[in-house]
Design brief:
Largest sheet of chain B: 7 strands, mixed
Helix content of chain A: over 70%
CATH superfamily of one domain in chain B: DD-peptidase/beta-lactamase superfamily
Number of domains of chain A: 2
Radius of gyration of chain B: 36 Å
Shape of chain B: elongated
Structural class of chain B: alpha+beta
Number of strands of chain A: 3
Structural class of chain A: mainly alpha
Distance between the termini of chain A: 17 Å
CATH topology of one domain in chain B: Beta-lactamase
Number of strands of chain B: 21
Shape of chain A: globular
Largest sheet of chain A: 3 strands, antiparallel
Strand content of chain B: 15-25%
Strand content of chain A: under 5%
Radius of gyration of chain A: 21 Å
Distance between the termini of chain B: 106 Å
Oligomer: heterodimer
Largest interface: A-B, 55 and 46 residues
Chain lengths: ~375, ~625
């Protein structure tokens, strides 16, 4: 308590020399990188939506909401997240169960929960933040690097929500929620022995998943990934068209709004999951490299910010969120360019859609909070 | 373990190590993505650039405009009218059932249309080919489909030119119609030239002149979007339209003949003795050829097929009738030519004829005979059967058959008339081969009356009469006069009929004029209001066999068992302009059924000048 007092004293005494952004607990570098990505994303969306200004305006509103969330979460001391973690986790699990019982959905999957008919939200999306938060909370009270029983408990904490999400069914989100939890474990110093064991286990479990657990459409996605040409008009259409769009962009691209694949509607879901193909077609390899560099800068800055965290919980939580953000980027670009199966992951802060923007900005809010409430 | 002290610095160090590791892996994975993108955008650029180009750009064949068809006076007989049809590209449709259901709600589709469409979808076809579902959309229907375009991917409204026959049933058989190409037909035509063609000529002139009417395919290089909608035409090679045909047919005569038949079963063929041009070719009853253009409905087709009057049957070229006494002018010339008689010889006609060693009595149509003094002229005027029995017997089949065949009987002599039947001019060999018996003298007597085995089509009768009117000068029957302004070539034609005594032509003309002008003439009814010199000959053909000694009682016979009535004629005698053969099935009395119809057509052609309208489509 005394230490806290001193630190608060320190903070207040230091604040005199601080800039406005520092006072608002905002890291200028990260803010600039995010703004750059969002503004660029709006331009890409304008082209990908078939020059639909309405969609661009809506996306701007989502971004506005996202930055507001960053500002709010940045003001909260990471200790409050730590205190809230078990409660939020419990609420999240209950919500996921409710989704399976009374959820609403589309395309054969139940993902949404209608709250008194007023608004709908997606508990699985919230779990992308809450699961690493819970694992970080649990590990922060344990001796690190974690022992076997600690690891076992962490796996239970991860796979409980993952399984519930998988049942909706939403394989993509289940995998992302799991990986977010696993990254906490990795940052906590999980020994390489266990990592090897996990990889072996995954390889062993894969056939069981295939024959016992996976839905037909999920199997179809995997099959299509392995050989897209086998069903060029059905499931393979998306990947063939996206590869064609990317490849035909060449080094310099066809020019803004000039992508024939995207503008002539050959490219499916071009403003959501496949938006990178539009960008790659119109701006070529040069554009792609710039975008990858921007993403990498954000991730590197994020890892740095996380590592400056005041305590183990803060570092683990923020670190896992940063790496999860990168996994979004990698999985999305990987699937659109045909090196990963199509799992339905949007391209962070560029794909159209409010839900993912709110979640991602929430994550950056947490990272800001962790960095700005660091020990000086 | 829980008692072990947590060491903040150790944990911070662990995190720092792992953070470096994470940064390293992030860098590694970014490199993987960069490598993948470089592979697609640099290494495989050519492949994907051409794939993208093929996606975007399509070579679309463009159907040539089918040639127009006019009658001899420039009246338009076959034209191409714009029509909108609803087509679907099955590959672009996500849920076919749902799409069809929505279209049904919007514009309504019959079970038949749906069935035919689905059949085409499941049969062999080119992928991404638009398949028609509904034809002749109204303005409202087009609007309804357009408004709901968003919900109907792969569905499009296509404008096309559709064949239309303004004269309808007047030209049904002779002009024929176009109809949808079926799979079997698709294999017969040039796959490049017919790439965009949906309809081909199925019968009649439309079929015979398919190659001329079709034209040459063009193409368009177009940019399309994923739904197949054309956004831009990048390059264009215009199709070459089909050639226009100007026929010898006269729409006025077709109309007059069809109206004269008034639904009765029969046929009329009129020709120009100077050229062989077919002036009229009618088969009654007919049908509306426009029904077939977009595929006739089962209901309409069954009605046509099952009608007792067989309207789909082209009587003019395929109707085989015993020509009866209409053969007498030709056979009479044959008698003279073989020298068995002269114009002067007279015979007595008791109303019957008998051969030696044969009990059969060959009856004259007139029970008590035509009197004691029947010469060839009167045998024609009164159509005396006994005279022809006697002279046929004298001439014999071996002289009669070759002579008659010079007028085209038993052969197909038409120049551009597809599908015509050769009918039958019997001789010894034929009988041996097909009946397995020798030729009897009685067979010659029957042939001498145009009965027995002999069969002729109205086209053959008209052709023979045409040669007759031209005094033996042959012209093959031709429907088309000009193909894109170039006259139809008649490279070969049968040998002209040259008589030993050419005056026999005039004397036979004279006898045939007597058929109309003499008070005993069998077509004397035509004398009324006749403004030109007309030569003609009536004929009747038995439909049911009349047994020996049995009286022919028309009252007792059902309408469809009555004799067919036939008439051959030409006019004017001094300068023949038109030769006509007409048949009225079960018409019984040729003088009052077949002959007046022929006269109506000839009156129209000789007395009335064509109106000056026409050739509006010609430059």
């Amino acid at each position: 308590m005394a230490g806290d007092f001193i630190r608060q004293l320190d903070d207040s005494s230091m604040s005199r020399g601080k800039s406005l952004l520092q006072r608002l607990n905002i890291d200028l570098t990260m803010l600039c990188l995010l703004l750059l990505l969002c503004v660029g994303g709006l331009f890409i969306l304008y082209s990908a939506s078939g020059q639909n200004m309405g969609m661009v305006y809506r996306q701007m509103v989502y971004f506005g909401l996202g930055f507001f969330i960053i500002f709010v979460l940045a003001q909260i001391d990471p200790r409050w997240f730590q205190m809230a973690a078990p409660w939020m986790y419990a609420i999240g699990i209950i919500a996921l169960i409710l989704v399976l019982l009374v959820g609403v959905g589309a395309k054969g999957a139940q993902r949404w929960l209608s709250v008194f008919g007023l608004f709908r939200f997606q508990p699985s999306e919230v779990m992308k933040l809450v699961t690493p938060m819970m694992v970080a909370w649990y590990l922060s009270s344990k001796l690190l690097p974690p022992k076997l029983n600690t690891i076992a408990m962490v796996l239970v904490l991860i796979f409980l929500p993952a399984l519930l999400i998988f049942k909706q069914p939403d394989l993509g989100t289940a995998l992302l929620v799991s990986s977010a939890g696993i990254f906490v474990l990795l940052f906590a110093g999980l020994s390489s022995r266990w990592i090897m064991l996990a990889i072996v286990t995954v390889l062993a479990v894969a056939p069981i998943m295939w024959y016992g657990v996976m839905h037909d459409y999920q199997k179809q996605r995997v099959l299509t990934f392995l050989d897209p040409e086998s069903d060029p008009l059905g499931a393979g259409w998306n990947i063939i068209q996206s590869k064609t769009a990317i490849g035909s962009g060449g080094v310099e691209g066809k020019g803004y709004l000039q992508g024939t694949q995207s503008q002539l509607e050959f490219l499916p879901e071009r403003h959501t999951d496949f938006i990178i193909a539009v960008y790659a077609e119109e701006h070529g390899l040069i554009g792609v490299m710039i975008l990858l560099a921007l993403y990498m800068a954000i991730v590197m800055r994020g890892i740095y910010m996380a590592s400056r965290g005041r305590d183990t919980f803060s570092r683990l939580f923020a670190g896992a969120l940063v790496v999860t953000f990168f996994i979004y980027v990698f999985v999305n670009i990987g699937m659109v360019s045909g090196i990963l199966p199509v799992v339905g992951v949007p391209l962070p802060l560029i794909s159209y859609g409010g839900t993912s923007i709110v979640t991602l900005m929430g994550a950056f809010g947490v990272i800001m909070s962790v960095y700005m409430h660091r020990r000086v | 373990m829980s008692f072990a002290l947590k060491d903040a610095q150790v944990e911070k160090d662990i995190f720092a190590k792992r953070a470096y590791l994470a940064a390293f892996f992030v860098f590694l994975l970014v490199c993987v993505l960069a490598a993948r993108m470089s592979y697609l955008q640099v290494t495989q650029y050519d492949l994907y650039a051409s794939k993208s180009e093929n996606n975007r750009v399509q070579l679309k064949p463009v159907e040539p405009i089918r040639g127009l068809i006019f009658d001899r006076n420039g009246v338009l007989l076959a034209e191409n009218l714009p029509s909108h049809s609803l087509t679907i590209v099955p590959e672009r449709v996500k849920d076919m059932e749902q799409t069809l259901a929505l279209i049904d709600v919007l514009v309504g589709i019959t079970a038949e249309q749906k069935e035919s469409f689905l059949k085409k979808v499941s049969s062999y076809r080119r992928p991404y080919e638009a398949i028609p579902l509904k034809y002749r959309l109204s303005e409202t229907e087009i609007a309804k489909i357009s408004v709901n375009n968003y919900f109907l991917p792969g569905v499009q409204v296509e404008a096309e030119l559709v064949r239309h026959y303004p004269m309808g049933e007047h030209f049904a058989h002779v002009l024929g119609y176009v109809g949808q190409m079926n799979e079997r037909e698709k294999k017969k035509f040039d796959p490049i030239q017919y790439k965009a063609t949906r309809r081909i000529g199925k019968i009649g002139i439309e079929r015979y002149y398919e190659a001329e009417l079709h034209g040459q395919v063009g193409y368009q290089k177009v940019e399309t979007n994923a739904q197949g909608r054309i956004l831009k035409v990048l390059e264009k090679q215009s199709p070459i339209p089909g050639k226009n045909l100007i026929l010898n047919l006269d729409a006025r005569l077709q109309k007059a003949a069809m109206e004269a038949f008034d639904g009765r079963r029969g046929s009329l063929v009129a020709m120009d003795p100077k050229t062989g041009g077919v002036l009229a070719m009618v088969s009654s009853p007919a049908f509306d050829p426009n029904l077939f253009v977009n595929g006739i409905s089962y209901k309409d087709y069954n009605a046509l097929r099952d009608s007792l009057d067989v309207p789909l049957f082209d009587r003019a070229t395929r109707g085989q009738y015993p020509p009866g006494s209409t053969m007498k002018p030709f056979i009479g010339l044959g008698f003279l030519e073989s020298g068995v008689t002269t114009w002067e010889e007279e015979i007595a006609d008791p109303g019957w004829y008998m051969l030696e060693n044969d009990e059969r009595v060959y009856r004259d149509w007139k029970r008590d005979g035509h009197g004691e003094h029947i010469d060839l002229r009167h045998a024609i005027i009164q159509s005396c059967d006994t005279y022809f029995y006697e002279m046929s017997f004298r001439t014999g089949i071996d002289r009669l058959h070759p002579f008659l065949s010079r007028f085209g009987f038993g052969q197909n002599t038409g120049l551009d008339i597809g599908n015509a039947l050769p009918a039958l001019l019997p001789d010894r060999d034929w009988k041996k081969k097909y009946r397995g018996r020798s030729w009897y003298a009685g067979d010659t007597l029957n042939l001498g009356l145009g009965q027995g085995y002999m069969l002729a089509t109205p086209l053959q009768l008209a052709t023979a009469m045409n040669v007759f009117a031209a005094k033996g000068q042959w012209h093959r029957a031709k429907l088309v006069q000009l193909i894109d302004g170039i006259p139809l070539e008649e490279e070969t034609r049968p040998e002209n009929v040259v008589l030993k005594d050419p005056t026999n032509w005039d004397r036979m003309d004279n006898a045939m004029e007597g058929v109309i002008q003499h008070y005993l003439g069998t077509a004397k009814g035509l004398r009324k209001n006749l403004k030109y010199r007309l030569a003609g000959k009536t004929g009747t053909a038995q439909v049911v066999g009349i047994k020996q000694n049995e009286e022919y009682d028309s009252e007792a016979l059902l309408e469809r068992q009555r004799d067919h009535a036939l008439f051959v004629s030409f006019a004017p005698i001094d300068d023949p302009k038109i030769a006509v053969a007409s048949v009225v099935e079960n018409g019984e009395s040729a003088g009052s059924t077949a002959a007046p119809i022929a006269k109506i057509v000839m009156d129209k052609f000789i007395n009335e000048a064509p109106s000056t309208r026409g050739f509006a489509y010609e430059n």
